[in-house]
Amino acid sequence: MLAVALTAVVVLAAVTLWAGRRQTEAAEPPLPTVGVQFHGLWESYNDDERAIVLDRLVEAGAKWVRIDLSWAMLQPESGETYSEWGTGLADRVIGMAAERGLQVLATFWLTPGWANGGAGERTAPTDPEDYGAAAAWAADHFGTRVAAWEIWNEPNDPQFFAGADPGTYVSLLRASYRAIKEAEPGATVVFGGTAYNDSEWIEQAYGAGAGDHFDVMATHAYQAFSDTEPEAPDDGTKWRLTHVPAVRELMARNGDADKAIWFTEFGWSSHAQNGPDVAHYERGVTPEQQADYLARTLHLLADRYPFVTHVFWYRERDSDRGSVHIDNYGLLDRDLQPKPVWHRLQQELREQR
């Protein structure tokens, strides 16, 4: 009888230990939702390649794609007409994503010449209401095929938004938020992802009246020394991924503590260019480091910054556009074969499930 009792105690202890471990595992914080930048509207793609890439993203476990959608492509001639070719291409590509169950974040940017006197696609329109009207049309046209609309790309960077003026940007945000919500009330409107965690510029945008005109804040959380590991401590500047709490604190001070932050771009480029003569923002990492840094970022956000709910890896595939650094961020190589970072993403998301 004593032996039976002792056995029962041992079994009970083992079951308790197992249950405790299961509870610990279950208590691990969830990873952020993962999306991927998909340049599917670029002329370098054909439909066969688009299909392969989208299938690969689904296989990896991605839930979203971020597609850069050009206003100038949709409405090249005037504010009264829309291009059959441009809208047809966008319909086809967005449809391919939707058919695979991928939610679409559309980054709506690039001004047609008629709207700003030919000042260039990256210059704001003369009348923000023209942008708002086009955004409303797009939200109505694509409907639920586009779940979220990002208002411009990196508006704090003059390379992407001429002048990078917060007030000018907020005029677009105000016009488009109202218009999109009227056309498609269920759509999420995303603040244009800033280059880096630029809390100072975002503060100026709040000062210009941004607060009531977006549902989600967004940043592009790259490391300015582009081979830096994701956990590198905040140095008080926008150049670190770990500066994102400063953005969160700014939002809270402006009454937006309940809004999420999305990283609508982040990533590391896999290449060997990282010597002393290489610019700090063009340093590469090994393919293995690229994969490791992706996984570490997901867990860092889950553990320390759960208010970052969605992240979009930049980008879907490597390219050959001429910059070694920009060309090698992909989850897939140029031949659309998975890189180590793709395999690591799939592993992390499978384990999460």
From TrEMBL:
InterPro entries: GH (IPR017853), Glyco_hydro_5 (IPR001547), Glycosyl_Hydrolase_39 (IPR051923). Residues 36-277 form the Glycoside hydrolase family domain. It comes from the Bacteria. This is Cellulase family glycosylhydrolase. Keywords: Glycosidase, Hydrolase. Belongs to the glycosyl hydrolase 5 (cellulase A) family. Gene3D superfamilies: Glycosidases.
